Amino acid sequence: MKFKVIIIDDEPLARSIVKSFLLEKDDIEIVAECNNGFEGVKEIEKHQPDLIFLDIQMPKINGFEMLEIIDENPSVIFTTAFDEFAIKAFDNSAIDYLLKPFTQERFDKALAKWKKSTSSKSEKNAIDSVASKQPDEHLRIVLKEKGAIKIIPTSEVY
Amino acid sequence: MQEQIQVNSINRAFQAIILIASFSVLDFIILADLSFTFDFSLADSISFFVFTSLFALLIFTIQRNHHSKKVLNSQNIGTVILFVILGTYFNYLVVSYFDGSSLVFIEFFWTTIIIKMLFILLLLFILLFIFWIDQQKLQEVQFQKFVIGKEKETSKIQLNSLQQQFKPHFLFNSLNSINALTMHNPEEARKMIHLLSEFMRGAVKKDQSTMIPLEQEINHIQLYTNIEKVRFGDRLTVNFNVPEECQLLLIPSLILQPIIENAIKYGLYGHTENVIIDIQVNCQKKYLVVKISNPHDPNTQLSSKGTGYGLSSIRKKMLILFNQHNLLLTTEKNGIFTTTLKIPQNEI
After folding, report:
1. pLDDT tier at B51 (50, 70, 90 boundaries)?
2. Most buried by CB count within 10 Å: which residue of A158, B87, B113, B255?
3. Element (H, E) at A151
4. Three-state DSSP class for residue B99
5. Cα(B248)–Cα(B253) distance, rounded to whole angstroms?
6. Which of B114, B81, B109, B83 is nearest to B94 (CA)?
7. A122 neighbors B198 (Cβ within 8 angstroms)
């Protein structure tokens, strides 16, 4: 299954860079490109992407305001020429903050960071979901060992 | 530096006292050698020490507060001569208290008065030179500090005015566009690099206080708008209407670019639709009039942050250059914001 990505930037050339950097990534599919925050909100609700590349200064509403509108935010990598919003971006749970112009190397690093965060998040979700299915969670202990998830009955613990 | 000067002043005062004391001791030895009484010789040398120290202090104060570029000017020479006369007179008054009625004293006083005055004159001139040199050095240090401060101030102003010409993110966004073009359209990337370098050269080289023909300023603006058109594609249209007869009229260099930048910013970021910026020039009798219009939505957050469209610095610049108010006017009508700049002709 491919990860769904949306690029939101009001400059066509800026979008094209992100697009070209993503071209060779087999596990990623660009499901939409948006000119502004309004289009962004619509496309995010429609596609429920795993990751968005988001510019900050855009027509009518900026990137932060767009995130406030969305109920459930996907992972966000900001792409902007402004360095002064970095703290605010990380306060908004940004995965990374790419300052334009950026290189393919820096872009790949941000992507790797996102993949690492999603894999640890999915592991946590897997543990949580297994644990939540138990009628009485005190009867079992869930452990993660060398990447594998183990469930041990408490009766076996001495 | 200030501490060092203070320490030097204390050292200098100490040195001056030692010098005056040496002259006083010499005076005492000469008088004693001439068989004057111990009391007489001591009174003479102490009065010499006290009055000369007092005058030295006054010379020091005068140098500190009324320093002149020449050491031997009428003020300094006059002061020293006055102090010599007063010093000799006060010395006579003190010493005569001890042996005033003595014929030996009166005879001695009048035969040695010239030598005594020359003695005081020499000492006060030595001190005058020392204090003058100190003050000269102090002023040089202060002047250097002033020059360094001015240079820092000037470079800060230059930097600010450069930032006013183009915001750093304009440069980074343009470089990002070039980055994209190099992948798909190298020919267009080369054109963009040319536009950007020409624009930057113009912004860096021009002196903002000089007047240039309008056509030069318009060429500079066209470089800027062409760069923005590459960035925003079809979303941005800029119309120029510059009559031929206005082309050679004068305008302060680099004054239009911040206005156009604002118009593009508020036009593009206030609307999601395509945006048209109009630049209209008129030549009136005494004025060159430039009107810049852009679509304006007062309800966008960008507008509510309003810093008067960042036009206050241009208003200030116009006031400094022409000493006239109301040369920059702004109006808003039917969703169109218009900035009108009136440039008086034959004023600079």
Report:
1. confident
2. B87
3. strand A148-153
4. helix
5. 13
6. B109
7. no
Asked if pLDDT for residue B193 goes beyond 90, the answer is yes
Strand partners, B340: B291, B329
Phi then psi for B205, rounded to 5 degrees? -80, -35
Of B176, B269, B272, the CB nearest to A14: B176
Dihedral sign (CA B85, B88, B91, B92)? negative
Q: Looking at the partner chain, which of B169, B181, B270 has a beta carbon nearest the beta carbon of A13?
A: B181
Residues 82-141 of A with CB under 8 A from B: 82, 99-101
Q: Which residues pair with B346 in a beta bridge?
A: none
Short-list B44, B55, B49, B57, CA closest to B21: B49
Q: Which of B177, B181, B268 sits opposite A59 (nearest CB)?
A: B268
- For residues A26 and A51, the answer to whether their CB atoms sit within 8 Å is no
Tokens (6 digits) for B163: 């930032």
Please give the structure tokens belonging to residue A114: 């996102």
Burial of A80-90, coded b for 16+ CB within 10 Å and e otherwise, reads bbbeebeeebe
For residues B216 and B202, give the distance between their C-alpha atoms in angstroms, rounded to a whole number.
10
How far apart CA B258 and CA B310 sit, in angstroms, is 8
Asked if residue B243 has a cis previous peptide bond (ω within 30° of 0), the answer is no
Max avg pLDDT among A81-90, A101-110, B305-314: A101-110
Roughly how many angstroms between the first and final C-alpha of chain A, as a whole number?
A: 42
Residue contacts between A and B (CB atoms, under 8 Å) = 67
With 50 as the cut, is the pLDDT of residue B55 above it?
Answer: yes
Residues of chain A above pLDDT 70, percent: 76
Quick one: closest CA in A to B234, which residue?
Answer: A12
Residue type, A11: E
Contact B269 A59 (CB under 8 A): yes
Residue closest to B171 by CA, chosen among B156, B191, B193, B186: B193
Q: What is the C-alpha separation between B221 and B214, in angstroms, rounded?
A: 10
Cα(B145)–Cα(B152) distance, integer angstroms: 11
